Amino acid sequence: MKVTQKNVRVFHIEIDDEASFLEYFRKNTLLLKEFFLLVEGNITKNIAFVLEQSGVCYKEINNCNIRFGGIKKETPLLEEEPKKEVISEVLSEPKQLPKQLPKLKLYDRPIRSGEEIIESIPIVIFGRVNSGAKVFCEESMSIYGIIDGLVQCDGEYIVLSGISPRGHLIFNGEIVDRETLKQNVLQKIIVRDNVIEIKDVV
């Protein structure tokens, strides 16, 4: 037997009613195929049929005790040890300061088809995100070219100048509807009170 741990990109979907789920799923099928779906709620025969026919990977989790999000761990308090007298030595060599991590990463080029970028710091892309390219960022992003591939941003904001009919954008776990975005207009997307806001950058 071989057991390996994998990191998987997941969407958690809670079904309220069949019609709204089917409309949402049909609109976003191509994007959702890139993720493992955890489906909670009443999976009707129609929903099960659509999921099976689409070829997405999913799991019904109505009876699972899965916790979503981080778990805050309490750190036990340690008893203070009695203070000991320490004699420090004077070093002749100067102490080296720890290297600072870069503040952001800059891509002054298009992101090629088939290329996958995963970053944990803010990124700026001066170019197009081509069809078949995937960009995942845990922090804020600025993209000064058309999004024709898949972009996922989990930061405070994303600035973009447009998305093609083939492009997909996920911002803080929400799929952004292309119809709410303008073409060739610089826009900034943020989340305020759990609602996505899109504003023109002037």
Automatic annotation (TrEMBL):
Pfam families named in the record: MinC_C
InterPro entries assigned to the protein according to its UniProt record, in alphabetical order: CAP/MinC_C, MinC_C_sf, Septum_form_inhib_MinC_C
UniProt GO BP: cell morphogenesis
Entry protein name: Septum site-determining protein MinC
Origin organism lineage: Bacteria, Pseudomonadati, Campylobacterota, Epsilonproteobacteria, Campylobacterales
